[in-house]
Amino acid sequence: PISFTSGIHIGCTKYYVRADSDIKSVADLRGKKIGVPGLADSSVMNLKRKLMDLGIGVTADNNEVEFIAYASADLAIALNNGAVDVIGAHDPVATKGELAYGFRKILDTGTDEKFSKEYCCQQFVTHKLLRENPEGAAAVTRALQKASAYVQAEPRAAAQLQIENDLCAGDLDFNAALLEEINYQPSRSLGKKTFDSAARQLQEAGILKAETDIEKFIEQGYIELFGVPDGYIYDSATKTYKEINGSRA
User: Fold this and answer.
1) Are 55 and 62 contacting, i.e. CB atoms less than 8 angstroms apart?
2) Is the N-terminal amide bond of 92 cis, ω within 30° of 0?
3) Which of the ends of the chain has fewer CB neighbours closer than 10 A, N or C?
4) What does the pLDDT look like over 107-157, one tens digit per residue?
C-alpha cells in the first residue's frame, strides 16, 4: 500500500485528435476509441471524470467510450494511422506528437477549468517505508518538493541538468519550454484536495467500489508527514528555499 504526501506539478496531460477529425471537443467523444498509455493511467481517470461531467457514460453498466492501451511511444502513430479517434498522453510525448503530426488539442489539463488547479503528478511513499523509516519518508517528500520548486523558478536551468545528466531525451530549448509551461509549484494541501475530488468522482464512476468508506480512503490515502511543509518556493536571487506552511486548499 501507498499514501500520497505532496502534489508535485500540474498540467502535463493533453488529449489530441487528428487535424481533419470532426471531433471538436470532449463533448463529441461518445462512441469513440481513445488511445492511452495504460488503462489505469491518470489520463484515463481524468478523462472519465470530464466525460461524467458532460453526461457521457463511463461506468461498467453504461460505458459509451472505449479506452485502448498502447506504449507511450506508439500513441501518436496509432492516432495518425486511424487506429483510434483520440489519444491522451503526457509530456514530452504529448507535445512531440502534436508537433510531428499536426494534431489538434481538445483538452489540456494545464488550462482546463476543471483540472488547472489539480495535480496530475504527486509524491507517494510506501507504508513499508512509513513503518520502518518515517524520517526517510519525510526527507524524500521534502526533496521532491524542493526539486519541484526549483523547476518552477528555474525551468531552463532544470532542463540543462536533464541534458547534462542524460535524465531526459530532447534538446535544451524544447525541454525548457515544456518545463516552463507546466506549473511546478508543490503543495500538499492542494494535492490532497485533488485526491479528494478525484476519489469521490471515481467512486461515482464505479472505479472505486460503492462500499468503500470514502472518508477513510482519503484520510489514509493522503497523509501529512511530520517535518514536511505544505510546499516550498525557490528564490533564484539568494539560491535559497522558503517553506510554505498552512493550507492553500
Assistant:
1) no
2) yes
3) N
4) 999 999 999 999 999 999 999 999 999 999 999 999 999 999 999 999 999
